[in-house]
């Protein structure tokens, strides 16, 4: 019977809803960019599969246990989509589609972490603390959900200005890494070096990567605006 294979709980329901919301966001952006083709559907599936594999591999490398790492999902999804695009001969950038999908999906999916009791915060006396693992703790799962919702709002606002393609992708990466770096100070985790966790070091490296990519992408557009447009 189906119930023997699938155990529906508030956590699993939120995870499933997160994937569904992410898929809907990806499809909505694909239609907006006139990229809703069969080839792009294959790229989407490759990115989703690569993200799942990357999430599990990163979790095993960092924590030595089963689970999912969002940072690993970002890396795995990016690499899988890039390889798939090249194999299909697709040259048009698709990062913006994944950017809104990731933010929308995690804004919902992080509630799964909340109900599952994982990714929990450090003990706190703040009035909004939640009980878990023997103490009142920072609800870092909710912090991450809220951060992703804000990032999604920023991306949608930015998209209205018709920026160069892949702007949303690099902007989302930089904003997520910055938010995750800050929220890690409130999460339980082992320090790796200089008072920072492995996730924070990964976020620092990721922020530099995405920020540099974003600056290089937008530099020509800023130059045109500064000079009053191209001269004929």
Structure description:
With about 230 residues, this protein is mainly alpha-helical. It has helices at about 1-5, 10-30, 40-65, 70-90, 95-115, 140-160, 165-185, 200-225, and strands at about 130, 135, 190-195, 195. The protein is globular.
Residue fraction in strands: under 5%
Could you give the distance between the termini? 71 Å
Quick one: biggest sheet? 2 strands, antiparallel
Backbone shape = globular
Mean pLDDT, nearest integer? 85
| Major sheet strand order | 1-2
Number of helices: 8
Question: Which H/E pattern describes the elements?
Answer: HHHHHEEHHEEH
Percent in helix: 55-70%
Number of strands: 4
Judged by helices, strands and strand pairing, the structural class is mainly alpha
Radius of gyration over alpha carbons? 19 Å
Question: Residue ranges: pLDDT <50 for 5 or more in a row?
Answer: 1-5
């Amino acid at each position: 019977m189906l119930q023997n294979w699938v155990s529906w709980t508030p956590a699993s329901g939120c995870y499933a809803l997160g994937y569904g919301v992410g898929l809907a966001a990806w499809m909505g952006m694909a239609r907006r960019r006139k990229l809703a083709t069969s080839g792009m559907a294959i790229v989407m599936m490759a990115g989703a599969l690569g993200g799942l594999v990357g999430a599990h591999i990163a979790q095993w490398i960092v924590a030595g246990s089963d689970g999912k790492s969002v940072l690993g999902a970002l890396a795995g999804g990016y690499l899988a989509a890039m390889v798939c695009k090249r194999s299909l001969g697709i040259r048009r950038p698709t990062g913006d589609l994944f950017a809104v999908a990731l933010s929308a999906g995690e804004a919902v999916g992080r509630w799964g972490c909340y109900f599952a009791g994982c990714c929990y915060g450090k003990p706190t006396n703040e009035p909004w603390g939640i009980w878990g693992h023997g103490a009142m703790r920072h609800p870092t799962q909710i912090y991450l959900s809220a951060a992703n919702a804000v990032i999604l709002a920023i991306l949608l606002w930015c998209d209205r200005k018709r920026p160069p393609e892949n702007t949303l992708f690099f902007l989302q990466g930089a904003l997520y890494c910055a938010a995750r770096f800050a929220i890690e100070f409130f999460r339980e985790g082992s320090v790796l070096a200089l008072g920072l966790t492995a996730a924070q070091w990964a976020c620092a490296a990721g922020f530099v990567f995405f920020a540099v990519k974003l600056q290089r992408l937008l530099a020509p557009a800023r130059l045109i605006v500064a000079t009053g447009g191209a001269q004929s």
